[in-house]
Known about the structure:
Number of domains: 1
Strand order of the largest sheet: 1-5-6-7-8-10-14-15
Shape: globular
Number of strands: 17
Number of helices: 13
Bound molecules: 6-O-phosphono-beta-D-glucopyranose
Strand content: 5-15%
Helix content: 25-40%
CATH architecture: Alpha-Beta Barrel
CATH topology: TIM Barrel
CATH superfamily: Glycosidases
Radius of gyration: 21 Å
Order of helices and strands: EHEEEHEHHEHHEHEEHHHEEEEHEHEEEH
Amino acid sequence: MAFPEKFLWGGATAANQYEGGFKEGGKGISTLDAITGGSAKTPRMVTYKNVLGEYESCESGKSLPDGAIGAIDESRYYPSHIATDFYHHYKEDIALFAEMGFKCFRMSVSWSRICPNGTDQINEEGLQFYDCVIDELLQYGIEPVITINHYDTPMYLADRFDGWSDRRLIDYYLFLCEILFNRYRDKVKYWMTFNEINYMHQWGKNGVHNMDEQHKYQAAHHVFVASAKAVKLGHQINPDFKIGMMIAYIPAYPLSSRPEDVMEAMEFSREQEFYIDVQARGYYPPFKLKEFERKGIHIEKGSEDDNIIANGTVDFIGFSYYMSTVCAKDKNRLTYTDGNQLLAAKNPYLKTSDWGWTIDPEGLRISLCQLYERYHMPLFIVENGMGAEDTLEHDGTICDDYRISYLREHIAAMKKAVELDGVELMGYTPWGCIDLVSAGTGEMKKRYGFIYVDKDDNGNGTLERRKKKSFDWYKNVITTNGENIE
Length: 486
Ligand code: BG6
C-alpha cells in the first residue's frame, strides 16, 4: 500500500471564505470583510473611508491611500459575509465530511471572532463556536487541522498599526495562539501558523496598507518571528503538537534549455524557497540577503530575532498545489495566463482550467520531490483542486467528472511520489471540499467542492447542501486508502 495507514485524507477550508456570520456572536470586523466580489475579468475591491470620511475603493492588491480606514459600505455586496454559512451549518457539514470518511478537516479560525480588535479583548462566544466545531469533528474521529491565520487580520490592527508592518502585531498574534493552544491542548494536534505565507502580504489582506517591497519584507519578517515564537510556545504547551508552515508552491519550468531561462526559473523558485528556508531551516538564505543589499531593503530586526527564528523551525511543510508555471529571461517569449494569485506563463504542453490555471499533475510529483529533497521534512498537501463551474441538473444531480479526473490524476502523481520517490507525506486535503467563496475572484460559481451549496454570485440561494458525483468517488478513495482512485 502506497499511503501510510494513518494518512490524513480530508478537505480544506478557510473561515473568511466559508464561515459567514461576519457580525454574529460578538465577532469584530476583519480586513477580509471589506473585500467585494469580482470575477475573472473584474478585480475584487477593498472598500475604505478616505480622510474626508467618504467611501472609496481600490483594487485588492494595491496600496491604500494615506489615512484610509477600512470600512464596509452597506450599499455594496460582500460575498464573505455569509459565505456558505458554516457558522449555522457546521453540524450538517461535518456529518457529510464524516460520511465521506474524512480523517482530518483543515479549517482556519477567524482572528476577529476570537479577539474582536485583535488586541487583548477575548470574545468567549467566538471561542464557544470553535469549541462546538472541534467537538463535533472529534465526535466523528476527524482530526482538526487548524490554520491559525488564513489571510484575515482584525480591521483595528490594520487601521491602527498598518497591519504586519508594525512589530506589535507579533504579540497580538501570540496572544491569539496562546488562547488556542491552551484551550485545545488536548483536542487539536495539527496546526499551521499562517496560510500561504509567500502571498500573505498581497492584497492588503493582512492589513498592510503600503505594499512597496520595503514594507512587504518588513511585514514578512514580523510574520516569521511571530510564527517561530508560536511554534516554540505551542511545543511548550503540548510537546506532541505538530506545527507546520504553509506555502503556495508553484513549480517553475524554464521555457527552453537556454541557461538564462533556467536561471530565471531558479529565481522564481527562490522566491518561494526564501519563505521555507526561514521557517524550516531557521535562517534567511544568502540569495535573499544579497537581494536586500542590492535593492537597499533594510529589515529592522530585534536583537533576538535571528535566535528566535533559528529555534522556532516548523515540524512539517504544508503547501497548496494547483498549477505550475514557465519562466524565460525574455518575457516577450511568454504568453500569460491566470494563476493562483499571480499572472503565470502558459506551458505549451499543458491545458488550463476555465479560469486559466495550468493543470499539471506531474508538477505535483515534481513539487513533492523538490520540497522533500531540499528540506527532508514531512510534507502535507493542504490544498489542491480545480475551480470549475458546476451544473445543477433538473433531477438535482451534479455530474462533476472534470473534478474527479483532475483530482484522480493528482492523487496518482502523489502516490508515485510516496511509492517511487520515498517522499514522506502526511496527508491530503483538497481545497474547498464544500463549495465556498473564491479567494481570487470572490465568485461562488468557481467551485471546488464535493458538496454543492446553493448560492450564486449575487448572494441568492437557499444554502442547501447537495452531494456531487465526486462525493462518492472521494469516499471510495478514502475507504481504500488511495488504492482505488478509479
Ligand atoms: C489559495 C488560498 O491561494 O488558493 C485559498 O489559500 C484559495 O484561500 C485557493 O481559495 C483557491 O484560489 P481561488 O482564487 O480559486 O479561490
